[in-house]
Write a structure and sequence with these properties.
- By secondary structure, the protein is of the alpha/beta class.
- It folds into two domains: about 160 residues, Lyase, Ornithine Decarboxylase, Chain A, domain 1; about 250 residues, Alanine racemase (TIM Barrel).
- The chain contains 14 helices and 22 strands.
- The radius of gyration is 24 Å and the shape is elongated.
- The termini are far apart.
Length: about 425
């Protein structure tokens, strides 16, 4: 939405975004049915994100696969919708693997990553012919054991690679780390040793390389460098068996203007990555698949959180707006940046603007959903809509103080439940807790 539309909607107490439309009366109806706080998945936006990413990459490199990162938001409805569109399931634990199977995903379309896998996990993934990326050397022995017990089967695996990733000599990993803790290191010889060890067994076939790095800036250049290094290693060590290059996830999605970040577009990333892939595999009869594993870029802007104003409160010279929600619902890392939001007011007779904070129901001092908002004070019974809350909120939301709110989905003019409001019997599951 542009600024003029946002201001007009705020005055009218009306919210409109990508096909979703809500006024005060509609939100009040939803509250009567589902409670005074809830999430809404914008199905149109979710599909749009998938199709934009697919178009950006597949138009430049045809053998392209999207693996949706389950850990970012493993809401079953959302995972099934992305699978229906064509996304593989990218999982990092047996919990997520089993979820993908329960949702009806073809095991051959599951990408099993992650640093901690049991022998049972690995053997099941190999039996199901899932795409298994080895993160550490301890997994090698488990794979060898499976291959020796199943010598009539071709055991296909990928290797997650760890290498120096810098821009202009400067480390670019998240939180300033100089080296990543994930993957098999190339610099100390571990990668080559693993390849030699695995190739000793005739029915093991190393078919791909995986290279996911969490970087601070998520720059296009970091993806160009990473893709080039993966291609170089693959051509040197796996030229006769290579089936995929997996560049991981972490790309920016479409960000709200209020974030004030000049983020690369999907086309920017695709142009850099696909140019490298096309050049490096120009002479290959069949180019390897390019796998991208988006999470945040796929779901962050596809979900909103709506919370009712319960009270307005003054302490010294500050104003606090208490809502039926928590920082856990919208910002699980508890950062202090304000998300884009909108107040839907019962009474649009606005008074003078004033600074206020929006706080949650927990007993933690740091439970701030927003700091330093300059607007007309919300009143009891108004609703506040927080945008861009689709990434990690659902999976990081702890069972803490209150039950988890329901999740609804909006498609065209229909609104339906995709996760019910939690109840006491689910919060304190008697199959787990001893009373």
């Amino acid at each position: 939405m542009n600024k003029l539309v946002e201001e007009e909607n705020a005055i009218q107490g009306y919210y409109s975004q990508d096909g979703m439309k809500f006024d005060y009366r509609k939100l009040n109806e939803l509250e009567n049915s589902y409670g005074s706080s809830f999430y809404i998945v914008n199905v149109h936006k979710l599909r749009e994100n998938y199709l934009k990413i697919k178009q950006a990459f597949k138009s430049r490199y045809d053998n392209f696969i999207i693996g949706y990162s389950y850990k970012t938001n493993y809401l079953p409805y959302l995972c099934k919708e992305l699978s229906r569109l064509g996304a593989y399931a990218e999982v990092v634990s047996r919990l997520e693997y089993d979820l993908a199977i329960k949702l009806g995903e073809d095991p051959k379309r599951i990408i099993f990553n992650g640093p901690l896998k049991s022998r049972e996990d690995i053997h099941l993934a190999l039996k199901n012919e899932s795409i298994l990326n080895v993160d550490s050397l301890y997994e090698v022995e488990m794979i060898k054991d499976y291959a020796l017990k199943n010598q009539n089967s071709v055991v296909k695996i990928g290797l997650r690679v760890n290498f120096d990733l810098t821009e202009n000599g400067e480390p670019i990993l998240q939180d300033g780390y100089e080296i990543s803790r994930f993957g098999i290191c190339i610099e100390n010889g571990n990668l080559q040793s693993a390849i030699i060890e695995l190739k000793k067994i005739a029915n093991i076939k190393i078919i791909g390389l995986h290279g996911h790095f969490s970087t601070t800036k998520r720059s296009v250049e970091s993806y160009r460098i990473k893709t080039k290094k993966l291609c170089m290693i693959a051509k040197q060590s796996l030229a006769d068996s290579l089936e995929f290059i997996d560049i991981g996830g972490g790309i920016y999605g479409e960000l709200p203007a209020s974030f004030q970040i000049n983020a690369p577009t999907f086309d920017d990333y695709a142009e850099a990555v696909c140019e490298v892939m096309n050049r490096e595999f120009m002479d290959f009869e069949r180019k390897p698949a390019l796998i991208l594993e988006p999470g945040v870029a796929m779901v962050a802007n596809a979900i909103i959180f709506i919370a009712k104003v319960i009270e307005t409160k003054s302490v010294a010279d500050q104003s606090f707006i208490l809502v039926d929600g928590s920082v856990h619902n919208i910002k699980p890392t508890m950062h202090k940046n304000n998300l884009p939001m909108q107040i839907i007011r019962r009474n649009n007779d606005l008074k003078a603007k004033k600074m206020f904070n929006i706080v949650g129901y927990t007993c933690m001092e740091k439970d701030y959903l927003a700091h330093g908002i300059n607007d007309a004070l919300p009143n009891k019974g108004d609703y506040i809509i927080f945008e861009n809350v689709g990434a990690y909120t659902i999976v990081f939301n702890p069972p803490f103080i209150k039950v988890r709110p329901p999740i609804l989905a909006a498609e065209n003019n229909d609104i339906f439940v995709v996760r019910r409001k939690e109840e006491f019997k689910q919060f304190f599951n008697e199959e787990l807790y001893i009373f």
